[in-house]
Amino acid sequence: MKKFLILFALALPLSIWAQYLLPNEEVIYSFETKNGKKMILVKDKKDEYIQYRFGNKNKVEMEFPMERTKDSWKKFTYNSYMRGGGKQNSGMELHYLSFKNNGYQYQLYKSYYAEDGSYSTGVTVTDSKGKETDIPGIYKSIKGNLSSLDESKLIVKENTGL
């Protein structure tokens, strides 16, 4: 009986994680938020789809898009900007992934500013009236790399003129 309980205790975190990451998927980018939520951006290992998931540690509260098809890549827009030169040149690295769902605009971000050495990550949600809500992420909890989308030919790239 003791062995069964130990096995169950070890398997429970895996089953919770399993709803965020399926066996055929890999993490593109993920982080935990300061309010105890989890954001994970995944893709099928064969690039069949990309999907955003958000929720608490026990339950995925939002998945976008719901359909796991090749067309999912077209529902996201990615842009980035990098300027070297360190503190004296205000070096920076900015990465954004955006999508629209049910009248809301979502923007994942990861940034670094050499001038003050600051790092940040999170999700900004904008409603139809333009009201923004920022959900800050815990930078040290990041797994994966949003900049890996720079190389993807599947995702829509946007040039914002930064």
Order of helices and strands: HEEEEEEEEEEE
Proportion of residues in extended strands: over 45%
Low-confidence stretches: 2-18
User: What's the average pLDDT?
Assistant: 87
- The total count of helices amounts to 1
The strand order across the widest sheet is 9-8-7-6-5-11
Strand elements, count = 11
Main β sheet profile = 6 strands, mixed
In helices, the fraction of residues equals 10-25%
Gyration radius, in Å: 17 Å
Provide an overview of this structure.
By secondary structure, the chain is mainly beta. It is 10% helix and 45% strand. The chain has 1 helix and 11 strands, in the order H-E-E-E-E-E-E-E-E-E-E-E. The strands form 2 sheets. A 6-stranded mixed beta sheet has the order 9-8-7-6-5-11, with no helix packed on it. Strand 3 and strand 4 form a beta hairpin. The termini are far apart.
